[in-house]
Each structure stands twice: as C-alpha cells, then as structure tokens.
Design a protein that fits this description.
By secondary structure, the protein is mostly beta strands. It contains five helices and 14 strands. A hairpin with a 5-residue loop joins strand 10 and strand 11. It is globular and about 50 Å long.
C-alpha cells in the first residue's frame, strides 16, 4: 500500500540522484522495501526521567551497563537517544521506485516492549520525511501512509536537501530538520518550525565502536497499532565509507516533547552509507525472534 501510493509521486521527481552507493538488496528482496540510505546517527544524552516519560507506558532497559556498547560509560542520570538524518536513494518495492527522500528521527533504543526485562526494541519519539532537491512536500504521501501503517510521520524541510550530510571526502557537516505545518482553511498558511540542528566534524578519537550504533538502530520498531517492524541497516558494502563524528545537536520544542529542548555539545556519532531493508509489520514477539543478528554487529 505504501509504495502503490508513493508511486503516484514519482512523476514529480525530475532531478537525478547524486552519486552514492546503489541499492544492492532490491534484487534479493523484491517484495520488501529496500533503499540505499546514507545517514548520520548521533547519541544524545537526555535526562533519564525525560526519556522515561516519552516512552510510557513502556519501560527502559539498561544498554549503558554493556561495556561492549558503551566502553567509556555514559553520563549519570541520562539515557542515550539516537538522533539521525538520512538521504535515501533508490527506494524500491517490486517495480515501484522512488528516487530520493530525506528522513530524520529521534529514537529511544532498548525499550522493554515485551515486558520481559531483557528484549530490546526501539521507540520512535518523532519521525520526519521530506522530498529532495527543494521538493519538500514530496514527503506528504509517505508521511500519511506511514502514519496509517503504525509509524507517526510528519513532513519536514531538510537542509541540505540534495545530498547526505557528510559526503565522501568531507570532514565536516551540518543538517537542519524543520517540520512543516501544512496549510488548511482553519490554520491558514503553512508554517515551518525548528526541530533539529546538527553540526559535526570527523572524530579523531571515537567514543564508541561501530557495533554500538549498529546495535542501537537495528532493533525492531514499536508501532502504534500494537505490532512491531524490523527495519535493518547493513553497513557492509565497499562503498559504506563509515566515519565517526563528533559535534553538537540542538533539539527544539514544540516539535519535540517537553524536556528534549537544548543544545548538546560533544555528541558522538557515526556516519555511513547503509543498505536498508524494511520488513512487513508483525507481532512484537515475532519481530524480536526474527531480527537478523548480523545487523547488530
């Protein structure tokens, strides 16, 4: 359903994709959503009480006690939240294809969806999507369809909107995510809010390992309809070009819940061109049992 609706929008995309890794998973998984996803993922320390309030009624697990994920520990009283920005290229399902979209989300990892005290899931606090090359409203259709399927998504304006935030050969980058309130007869003209500002440089001494990021972002997603979904990123191609980055992230209200607002310095992150594989929604027990362990390494 998602891609049948998205296909209506492809005729509006006239700009060619910028050079980046190809979608290598489409031939192997023609009936699933695949894409080449070039992104930056930053771990932001937020007050644990703020994060607990955001994921209710679910509870948090304790990833920071795992020294293989957090070898240098984590600030007391805080919890890791993943803030990402991605440029998605060659998005496919069967014969349907979307050339480019931009996406961003604020993700809480290691949420106890099964209430067993041990099985980690990811909780999406906010997610945005938008069109590339200045066509911001190309995100409207996927946002509506994704929301109906169990992931609340809103449209946004991205800067830059014609490439990944940390292109090959670059040592510094920045990105902005600005949600768009669409015009309607009640609210009047559309408005643009602030949600995220990111400013990064490549890190000389990484705080985490690649496994930290792979493990945090590749857990099944909790949907709003009682189901869950595996959405895995694979950083194992010759063109992945992984880099560790460090910098600052600014989060804004009301685009984000109370308590998230602030500018967070010395934030460490990971950047790379992943191959993305989105499964169909399923029960949360099935999603946990079927999640690919190789994506976590």
């Amino acid at each position: 359903m998602l891609f049948s609706l998205l296909s209506l929008a492809t005729v509006l995309l006239t700009a060619a994709a910028l050079p980046q890794g190809p979608n290598t998973l489409a031939p192997e998984y023609p009936n699933l959503r695949t894409a080449s996803s070039n992104g930056t993922y930053a771990i932001v320390p937020l007050l644990k009480s703020t994060v607990e309030a955001a994921v209710k009624p679910f509870k948090l697990l304790d990833p920071v006690s795992d020294k293989s994920l957090f070898p240098n520990g984590f600030p007391n009283g805080t919890y890791p939240v993943v803030v990402s920005s991605t440029f998605m290229n060659d998005i496919r399902l069967n014969a349907l294809q979307i050339q480019n979209l931009l996406g961003s989300n604020v993700l809480v990892p290691y949420v106890d969806r099964l209430e067993d005290g041990k099985t980690p899931f990811s909780f999406t606090v906010r997610q945005w999507i938008g069109g590339a090359f200045g066509q911001d409203l190309m995100g409207v259709v996927p946002a509506v369809v994704g929301s109906l399927a169990g992931t609340i998504i809103t449209t946004a304006q991205f800067q830059p909107n014609d490439k990944h935030t940390l292109p090959v050969g670059s040592s510094e980058s920045n990105f902005q995510v600005k949600p768009i309130i669409l015009p309607n007869p009640v609210s009047g003209p559309g408005a643009i809010l602030e949600a995220i500002d990111g400013d990064f440089n490549t890190a000389s001494k990484p705080c985490y390992t690649a496994r930290t990021f792979h493990n945090l972002i590749n857990r099944p997603l909790i949907l709003t309809n009682g189901l869950c979904q595996r959405n895995n990123y694979y950083f194992n191609e010759s063109f992945t070009n992984p880099k560790f980055v460090t910098g600052k992230v600014s989060l804004y209200e009301p685009a984000l819940p109370a308590g998230f607002k602030g500018t967070y310095h010395s934030v460490d992150g990971y950047s790379g061109n992943a191959e993305q594989l989105g499964q169909n929604s399923e029960t949360c027990k099935a999603a946990a049992a079927n999640n690919d362990p190789t994506s976590l390494q």
